[in-house]
Design brief:
Ala_racemase_N, TIM Barrel, binds pyridoxal-5'-phosphate, 9 helices, alpha/beta
């Protein structure tokens, strides 16, 4: 009898299937396992299966569990996918290898300062408020060109654009819109797609998908 597939294997199989249809290389899509609310004992099995990109949405929660895990798996990459307060920028730069939620001028300033102080720079995605939902964070679409200019002037490594489309509406138009914005601004990275919609996001050009529930089950 064949061994049952793990959730990680299932998600990889889906990514491979969609990439084939989209005529894309599966290697061009980075799977970020979103481990927020989950303890180390739920995360270690994924690390043991070779998963190396993880996402957290709170600095403080990540500080509590990732330093010990990183010691055991030093080749891993930790992504901050949640909103970042300027006064946590330095902590974030110390712990995270990539930030997906750069969304306002004051945070550009805070991150540039944190990079200087910590002595390293990490790539950042600029989050765009595609659904006009300011509570989720994200730069208003009209302010994106000015923010990107500021990011470039501050010499912050710019990975691309990120979005969280409104829930309970077909996400495809929002993904297509983010893809267009990224193209218009000459950016390669598109951080978009979660457990419920990552296939659609890959079809529409996602380079980084952020998947929690499909890998870990429902959050408590
Ligand atoms: C929690 C979260 C995810 C993962 O959501 P799932 O539906 O569990 O896959 C992705 N992106 C962000 C920004 C999140 O906060």
């Amino acid at each position: 009898m064949e061994k049952a597939e793990t959730p990680l294997q299932q998600v990889h199989a889906t990514i491979a299937k969609v990439c084939k249809i989209a005529r894309r290389k599966a290697d061009d899509v980075t799977l970020i396992a979103v481990s927020k609310t989950h303890a180390a004992d739920a995360i270690v099995p994924l690390l043991e299966q070779g998963q190396r990109h993880f996402g957290e949405n709170r600095v403080q929660e990540a500080q509590g569990k990732w330093p010990a895990l990183r010691e055991r798996y030093p080749d891993m990459t930790l992504h901050l996918i949640g909103q970042l307060q300027s006064n946590k920028a330095e902590d974030a730069v110390q712990l995270f290898d990539c930030i997906h939620s750069l969304d306002r001028p004051s945070l550009v300033t805070a991150l540039a300062k944190a990079f200087d102080k910590v002595g390293r720079k990490v790539p950042c995605f600029v989050q765009v408020d595609v659904g006009e939902e300011p509570q989720k964070g994200g730069c208003p679409v009209a302010e994106l060109p000015a923010l990107l200019d500021q990011v470039r002037a501050a010499e912050i490594p710019l990975a691309g654009l990120m979005c969280i489309p409104p829930f309970e509406i077909e996400p495809a138009p929002f993904f297509a819109f983010l893809d267009k914005l990224a193209r218009d601004h000459g950016l390669d990275g598109r951080s978009m797609g979660m457990s419920g919609d990552y296939e659609t996001a890959i079809m529409l050009g996602a380079t980084h998908i952020r998947v929690g529930t499909a890998l870990f089950g429902e959050r408590g």
